[in-house]
Amino acid sequence: MWQSLTPFLQNIVLLLTLLAPLVVAGSCVLHGYRTASLTRALMWRYRWANILFVVLIAVSVGLGVGLLAQERGLRQGTALAAEKFNVVVGAPGSDVTLMMASVFLQPSAVPLIDGEVYARIADHPHATLTAPLAFGDSYRGAAVVGTTSDFVDYLSGGLVAGRHFQNSLEAVIGAAAPLQVGEEFDPDHGRTPAEKSEFEGAHTGAGLRVVGKMAPTGTPWDKAILVAVESVWELHGLANGHAPTSENQLGPPFDAAYFPGTPAAIVHTDQLFAAYALQAEFNQASETMAFFPGAVLSRLYRVLGDIRQVISVMAFVTQILVAVSVVVGLFVLTLLFRRQMALLYALGAPRRFITGVIWSYGASLLVAGALAGMALGQLATILLSRILSARTDILITAPLGWPEVHLVAGFVGTASVLALLPALAVGRVTSPADLRG
Amino acid sequence: MLLALAGLQNNVTGRVTWGATDITSVSKRKRSQFRARQIGLVFQDFHLFEELTAKENAALVSMFRPKAERQGLRKAAAAILGRLGLDDDQRAVGTFSGGERQRVAVARALVTDPPVILADEPTASLHRNAADTLARDLHDICRRGGKTLIVVSHDDSVLGRMDRVLTLRDGRVEA
């Protein structure tokens, strides 16, 4: 039955179930009564205390939903960034390090694969696209990456301005790179401040010119500057991957004898089985390591999954604590209402009506706080996503989703039942003596 | 004493009987129901919800009465407020003068048309003119409606209008 429902309907049913305590409690205490104007009066009379309560609830709810949404946004952003990287082949070592270097362009020292190995990868019958990556240089914080124009096309789906590099002095920039088409630049050797300072001026006079701009990809490659891999090798005084007779050639095929080495080869296959076959083959070879970035990310997500559980539990516990604090606060606040409630009792109001007035007051605060918390959580995720995107260059969007809605609904449902406690207490202890004030 | 008469005092020595009903021997719920139908209360310091309008305060009991009675109670509240010179005033009663507030409290006591009105020092918080007007209006409305009006007061202008005055000294009736 449950499985036959669409995910949307499942979420709706779960939402209604979580909110059911609110509806049931409200029906029990308010049935047949009209408490809205009295609740409004109490809300207005103690507005500053009420605002404080709503803010307290909103901050707690906002933190909970914000953290959950942010974690999911980070997960989706990294998955999107790795999507185009079918299989990565490199020299044996840490697949995480190589993934961080090749997919996320993080500065790392990784061993190289030589020309013969690269040729075997490029000539593999299942490989429809093979591209070397050569990194290590930078310009104003952006990685300068050597590769092929086919890979540029594959990665971005085409250029939005200009054209591809056609010689080793031309470059194509990512959508968010700190350069414009037509500008010239000299890359720095290295990525870190220490490297740059040690090799300051190593590439002065290189005079690379930007001739094209990629479409946005939502990945760290948006900030990158891409040049022909031959350009990187030449800048470092190495052979350019081609025999002297074809020294002006750009791109594949590379001559193994003149191939200086590359830290990673990105391989694309048309078929999934082919990707698995290729990965298995190069993973078994002693001089290479091949992996799916998606699989490495999944491994990291499993660790993150534990963190997510911790975050979820923390968010839940925090909200329970806030709910308890709210209930205790309501107990205190309702002391202020004793005269008004005593009056209602004197006028012949049933105890259930008095309970209903106090409960609807507490429930209004809870619902207002929860809604404000959702808005606050959304705002926090937008800000956090921007900060994280700026720091990691990974496009992170973290809209609130059903898990957050369910968390808030669970909080409201639970707290609304807890709010019955002060309401019942006031309903029971209301005394005409309070009329004397 | 008025709390005891209204069935709001729990530890009462002796009995409080209204007609055939001994309200000291019934449950709190029954007493509450009796009070809701039979007794209207006016307090010295008004006891109004200051954020509500005069009509909302006067028709307060409609919030917990059966749905069928609500419309009638709201109409009755408007009519009584009109008689007391407060019709169509949409302000929150927090902005009212003392005399206006006490008239709203009187309207609230009368809205269910109870046979008995218990008023505790109804003019004590009012200046002279307002006190005289309220004493007159309260007395006239109760007399015309055939209601029993029991007032605890130190105000001669109130006492002078009463059919019978009992003086309490040290908890005992003097005359």
Automatic annotation (TrEMBL), chain A:
This is ABC3 transporter permease protein domain-containing protein. The chain crosses the membrane at residues 49-69, 310-337, 357-384, 405-427. Keywords: Membrane, Transmembrane, Transmembrane helix. InterPro entries: ABC-4/HrtB_transporter.
